[in-house]
Design goal:
Radius of gyration: 27 Å
Organism: Tigriopus californicus (Marine copepod)
Helix content: 40-55%
Protein name: Transposase Tc1-like domain-containing protein
Number of strands: 0
Structural class: mainly alpha
Shape: flat
Amino acid sequence: MEVKTVAQTNPRKSICGHARNFGVTNNTMHRTIKKANGKKLVRVERPLLTPGMKETYLLHSKALLNNLMKAKANCIVIFGDEKTWKVAPVRNRQNDRYMS
């Protein structure tokens, strides 16, 4: 069989696995696949968000928007990036050195 067709039929299989099946070294298989397609076939592009995740984000966004619209006028809403806030951070003496 031709390397290109074998690699395309099972793109998620590793180069090492293909090399074992053909009885060649990993470097030889890597070079052969690279020459055949110009790139590795192991990585398959996937969307960042699956349809289920998109639906969940949409439901949460609608709920948040609904809560903000029905909030009282004197209600204060603070949006943050979920990092911890430190009012008085720990002092690091190494940062306070003087060069003379």
